[in-house]
Design brief:
This is Adenylate/guanylate cyclase domain-containing protein. The protein is α+β, with helices and mostly antiparallel strands and 265 residues long. It has 6 helices and 15 strands.
C-alpha cells in the first residue's frame, strides 16, 4: 500500500505530535482509500505512527485497471502538493489503557529548549574524550538549574534539553542561569521559550507547542534567550524581567508570523 503522511514539522527532534495520514492502495480496477488523524512518536528510523481514532475508509470502483491506475496517480499527485511525504511501514492503532479508554490529559506549561551553538566544531576541536567530559559537565549544570527553578526535564535532543515550567518567569530565570553556568565551560547556548497547551498521551507529551518552541530557539543567536508573545503575555505585571521586541518572524513549518522578544540581561 502506498502511504502518504502529512506531518509538517517532521524535521523537529521532539517526539510526539498529531497530524494527518492518507493512504491509497490499488487492487485491479478498485482503489481503496484510508485517511484520518495520526500521532507520531520518535524521529528518523525509529519513528512510529498510530491512528488516534479509527480511520475513514472508501472504495472507488473504476471499471478497469487502467482507470484505477490513473485515479491513483492523480490522487497521489494532488496530495504531494500539500506537504505529504512517503511513509514506510504500517500505521498501527494506538493501544488503549487497561480501563478501555485512552489516557489523555491536557496541560499548560512554559516550554524551554536550550541548544549548544557550534557543538560540532567544538567537538572536533576537543576530541571525543574531552568533549564527552565537557558534555557531562554541561548536562550536570543544566539539570542543577532546572532543579533550582523547579523545571521538569522532558527529553534531551543531541546536545539540547527540553523542559517545562509552571510559570514563565521561572523558565526565563532558569534559561539565563544556564547561560551563565555553561559559559564557564567555554560553551555558548541559544534558548527559546514558548507557552502553550499539550496533551499527555500514554505517558508522553504531545503537542504543537513543543515544535513552536523549537522554532523560536532556532531564531536565537549565541547567548540569546528568545521568548514568544505567549510567554510575554503570561508574565506577571510586577515581573522584573526585561524583554525587548525582537520583531516579527516566520517560524519554519508554523502558520502565520510570530512576534518574538529577547530577554535583556
Amino acid at each position: 500500500m502506498s502511504k502518504f503522511l502529512r506531518i509538517g514539522l517532521h524535521q523537529s527532534n521532539v517526539s510526539g505530535y498529531t497530524s494527518k495520514a492518507w493512504c491509497v492502495r490499488r487492487v485491479g480496477s478498485a482503489v481503496f482509500l484510508k485517511w484520518g488523524a495520526v500521532e507520531v512518536q520518535g524521529v528518523g528510523k525509529g519513528r512510529k505512527v498510530y491512528w488516534t481514532h479509527l480511520p475513514q475508509e472508501k472504495t472507488i470502483r473504476c471499471g478497469t485497471a487502467v482507470r484505477a491506475q490513473d485515479y491513483t496517480k492523480s490522487a497521489i499527485a494532488r496530495r504531494r502538493s500539500h506537504d505529504y511525504e512517503p511513509l514506510t511501514g504500517a500505521i498501527a492503532t494506538r493501544r488503549k489503557s487497561t480501563n478501555g479508554s485512552a489516557e489523555l490529559k491536557q496541560a499548560l506549561a512554559t516550554i524551554l529548549i536550550v541548544d549548544i551553538v557550534g557543538s560540532t566544531a567544538k567537538a572536533a576541536k576537543l576530541g571525543d574524550a574531552r568533549w564527552t567530559k565537557v558534555m557531562g559537565l554541561y548536562y550536570a549544570a543544566v539539570r542543577k538549574e532546572l532543579k533550582s527553578s523547579r523545571g521538569k526535564e522532558v527529553v534531551t535532543t543531541g546536545d539540547g534539553v527540553l523542559a517545562t515550567f509552571k510559570a514563565p518567569a521561572a523558565g526565563i530565570n532558569c534559561a539565563t542561569a544556564i547561560r551563565e553556568a555553561v559559559r564557564t565551560l567555554g560553551l555558548d547556548i541559544r534558548v527559546g521559550l514558548h507557552a502553550g497547551e499539550y496533551t499527555i498521551s500514554g505517558g508522553e507529551m504531545v503537542g504543537i507547542a513543543f515544535h513552536i518552541c523549537t522554532r523560536v530557539a532556532a531564531k536565537a543567536r549565541a547567548g540569546e534567550v528568545l521568548v514568544s508573545r505567549a510567554v510575554k503575555d503570561l508574565l506577571a505585571a510586577q515581573s522584573q524581567i526585561s524583554l525587548r521586541d525582537h520583531g516579527s518572524h516566520q517560524l519554519k513549518g508554523v502558520p502565520a508570523r510570530w512576534r518574538l522578544y529577547r530577554v535583556e540581561s
